[in-house]
Amino acid sequence: MKARVFITLKPGVLDPQGKAIHHALEGLGFAGVNDVRAGKLIELDLAEETSDADIEAMCRKLLANTVIENFRIERLGAA
Amino acid sequence: MNSAVIVFPGSNCDRDVAVALEQVTGRKPAMVWHKDSELPERTDFIALPGGFSYGDYLRSGAMAARSPIMRAVADAAGRGVPVIGICNGFQVLTEAGLLPGALMRNAGLSFVCRPVALKVENSQSLFTCGYDAGETVHFPVAHHDGNYQADAATLDRLEGQGRVAFRYQEEVNGSARGIAGILNDAGNVLGLMPHPERAIEPAHGCTDGRCLFEGLLETVA
To answer: What is the mean pLDDT of residues B119-139?
Structure first.
């Protein structure tokens, strides 16, 4: 079973990398980009019996720093 | 003073802080590998050094904060043993939950490496009793992720309780309220981005960091 964990900065937390990407897009002439926020995608290959609670514990204990980051889990089912 | 320096894979200021401690205390610190689960008996001071533990993978300090020795460090901190985290050590302390907030990528995105002016905001702590309140000191910084952030309530609490130990006197990395170093609630854990251990002898160009270790020696020993 595979799962994806999307880690994003909480709203209101400054994102210097997102800002730099935003500026670079504007520099390339792309108009209409209002804002850019950069995050992380972590792909997990898990034993079938892994529960949602297990994955959430992984996020809280290590994968995300919940002081500054939110996470969202997406189960992909059997590959 | 029986000090211990924790060594993680990727630590690179472990020797610097060991030299500083030996010069000031006259005793070599124990170098404790991150996979150990116990500190030497009668350890009365712990230093988490600067560097790039685990290559800063995932987040700076994230992996190191979950290594076996950190349980022993947290226990010791809970018993009141003084713990200092310098640079990457500060990042490890926030990731381990021993200090509030987080250290994010510098606002200017560049690695910052230069001496900076700091104001000693609290001269009553174990670590800062060798300084005068409001005194300006110069320590070098060398970091990419030193941008201290916490929610407004946490920042207000830190300020209100006198837990901001050092504040930048110039713009360095975008840190909220210019915070360079903070103390825990009990006052026995200090995390700071600048490197006092790199300002202890004239050859360093500045000896302002020496007072921090001398003050500690006086209160701990």
So the answer is: 96
